[in-house]
Amino acid sequence: MGRMIEIHELNGAGRFGCYIAEPKTPARAAIIVIQEIFGINEGIRAKCDRFAEQGYLALAPDLFWRLEAGFAVDPDAEGALQRGIDLMTKFNQDQGIRDIEATIQTARGMVGGGKVGAVGYCMGGRLAFMTAARTDIDASVGYYGVGIDELLREAHAIAHPLMLHIPTADHFVSPEVQKAMHKGLDHHPKVTLHDYEGLDHGFATTFGTRRNEAAAQLADSRTDAFFAQHLA
After folding, report:
1. What is the pTM of this model?
2. 42 lies in which domain range?
3. Is 194 a catalytic residue?
4. Where residue 32 sits, what CATH number does that domain have?
5. Which of 99, 138, 149, 170 is an active site residue?
6. pLDDT for res 88
7. Does 1 score more than 80 pLDDT?
């Protein structure tokens, strides 16, 4: 369903790849799909395709383009986790947010100035929080974001709705960090948190061994309703 396009950096200095999936009818709004550490792989592209089937223009920017353009691996493949972690440790997140902002601007232009949302997974879940705090995104969703407790000082800047999906047995996000997230965000008027008891990181991956079907469908249904409300 989708294809690759190029997006210009905000400063115009370079261009990066972006997977785009377009609906069959004029787009109701746009959704930026923010990658895991595994790149714009089959699972992320499938998520874009799914949003396009719902009537959204969906775009997944290649955020690792400065490090390894086109990087995409199966999360279950041998060595994939370490390769992704190696790239993540070199990845400049502030620069990544600027690339997401460039994607937002491109998407907004493609839907005639309409609304744009963002949804991110793993590393992308953290970036979804940063996007909510640092850009004019209309609505954001983060799945199992890592290190959000380090960003709570930015929560005051969240002006539009944000939803976070939190598996309680996430081996990358300790119970102490989850507690800090709830303490810092439960009373925020724009933020909604959902806990998934006993589930681990990556439970809503599109394919592979990490997926928990029932929980993934529940989380995705909440995301769909959230976007239907806030991107209308």
Report:
1. 0.97
2. 3-230
3. no
4. 3.40.50.1820
5. 170
6. 96
7. no
